[in-house]
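Need residues for this backbone.
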């Protein structure tokens, strides 16, 4: 009889999990995650008309500053562009809507290697991952208008901007998802500290290199190269790194207390 993924995970804790059971569990976890993504995508496709108004607001805000008389309507340059734009946006919405299930399946696939006391952090991690991803998207929503004002106005008043729906929404969604993933940085580092892959002293030693990499990543992710936008992106990432060092230190302290007789 085939065992369920949860039963297989429990067996792995006791060292009983075979390679085929591990692959079977991976297949089941992926199926559940893809099913959650599909359901979320359907929801995203339905709510697209209302979401589109919120997505185009940063463009309208930027255009109102550099060219108040211009319309902020997006244009479609190909017959299939409206459909492709709607589907692309629906998938991103589906990623957010199905995020709790996706993160939970990922967590349950990884956590068999943890102790029973460490696996109880599954629900907090799933909730926090969703919250941090949402905060990242919200932060991007505040940064994108400033970036657009610089990008659209850099050519001067003689260049009239007319953005296609595909180009603008690809730019907006890519930037938003990038911000959302960046805001997951502290959870990733805390998880690595939880499983013992990194230590607080290692994170402190890596701090100078981490700051340089964070600034480079912020320069790549942000839509412009101005100092203000770069600081808005790099600043939270550096704070997240420092918070991860503190969290790793607290985890290590708690482990030492549990190991004391």
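Answer:
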């Amino acid at each position: 009889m085939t065992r369920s993924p949860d039963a297989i995970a429990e067996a792995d804790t006791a060292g009983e999990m075979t390679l085929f059971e591990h692959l079977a569990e991976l297949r089941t976890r992926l199926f559940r995650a893809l099913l959650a993504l599909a359901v979320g995508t359907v929801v995203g496709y339905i709510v697209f008309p209302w979401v589109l108004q919120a997505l185009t607001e940063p463009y309208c805000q930027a255009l109102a500053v550099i060219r108040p008389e211009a319309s902020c309507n997006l244009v479609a340059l190909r017959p299939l562009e409206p459909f492709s734009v709607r589907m692309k946006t629906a998938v991103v919405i589906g990623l957010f809507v199905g995020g709790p299930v996706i993160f939970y399946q990922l967590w349950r696939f990884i956590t068999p290697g943890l102790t029973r006391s460490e696996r109880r952090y599954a629900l907090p991690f799933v909730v926090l991952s969703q919250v941090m991803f949402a905060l990242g998207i919200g932060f991007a929503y505040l940064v994108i208008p400033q970036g657009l004002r610089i990008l659209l106005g850099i050519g001067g008043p003689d260049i009239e901007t007319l953005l296609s729906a595909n180009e603008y929404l690809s730019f907006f969604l890519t930037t938003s998802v990038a911000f959302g993933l960046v805001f997951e940085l502290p959870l990733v580092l805390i998880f690595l500290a939880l499983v013992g892959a990194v230590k607080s002293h290692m994170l402190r030693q890596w701090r100078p290199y981490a700051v340089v990499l964070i600034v480079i990543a912020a320069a790549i992710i942000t839509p412009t190269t101005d100092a203000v936008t770069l600081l808005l992106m790099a600043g939270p990432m550096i704070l997240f790194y420092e918070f991860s060092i503190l969290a790793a230190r607290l985890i290590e302290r708690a482990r030492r207390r549990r190991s004391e007789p």
